[in-house]
Design goal:
alpha/beta; 12 helices; Methyltransferase, Methionine Synthase (B12-binding Domains), Chain A, domain 1; Rossmann fold; 51% helix
Length: 305
Amino acid sequence: MDDSFTPKQVASALQVSESSVKRWCDRGVIRTDRTFGGHRRIPLGNLMEFLESTNRRVLDPKAIGLALNSRLPSAEGVEIAPTNRAEQVALQERFERALISGNEPDARRVISQWYTSTGSVVSIADDLLVPTFTSIGHLWQCGELEIYQERRGCEICMRLVHELRRLLPEPTGAAPLAMGGTAAGDLYQMPTQMIDLVFRENGWRSENLGCDLPFSSMLSAARKHMPKIFWLSVSHIRDESQFIVDCDYFAKQLPKGILLTIGGHALHEGLRRKLTFSSYCDNMHQLATLAQSIRSSIPSASGQI
């Protein structure tokens, strides 16, 4: 898949006229490259910037080769088509350097290239973000990075993830609803944001409630909106004993028919055995498979989305 597009392709993706896109290019509203023949080409990263700055979103991903679920794992366990391993390693290292140095444009270029190579936010989460922030966290713990560099890198990545959301089409009202967030004391925003994108990429309506939420508030949201799945992202736990009590009460008080899905690096095996939940996912690949499997089993969703 190419990672730059013609004005005609972008116009189709945004469902506007080609002349409008060309005008935006010529005015610098969309940063545009030129071929040797003088033709306009719009890199995905530049398109992401434009969508964010103008509050637009892609309405037809197929027009730019981003067909929904085209390379996601299926319920039968078919894996996402990976990029060349050497290329993945080089891109991941480049992404890490960009975040550490605060080079947001280059970080955006890496995300764009990765997305067009894999066609999936699932791969961005598991194969790019996880190893990058694992490495950055290790460097910080070893004193090789200042804490501001780690935090700045997180902020850059959060902005880029928000831009990715605009590349995904809005699901229809017939799509099943997923909802979730993190419990009180857990301030990690990235995992719950990526979960939101994974559900959206799989054709779900999704609502990320945010971070640091009391279980009572999450229960209120679940009762009001009745999602098919409620996710709980767990990256930090202040008090394991209290968390077990609160999570158990939350799981048992959820209305019938709501599936509680949990995951996160704070959930070690010993803790998981003490928790009540419907399903557990180690990574976003597993979550995507779960989302596809459940969505395909819902008669009202199949054939309409």
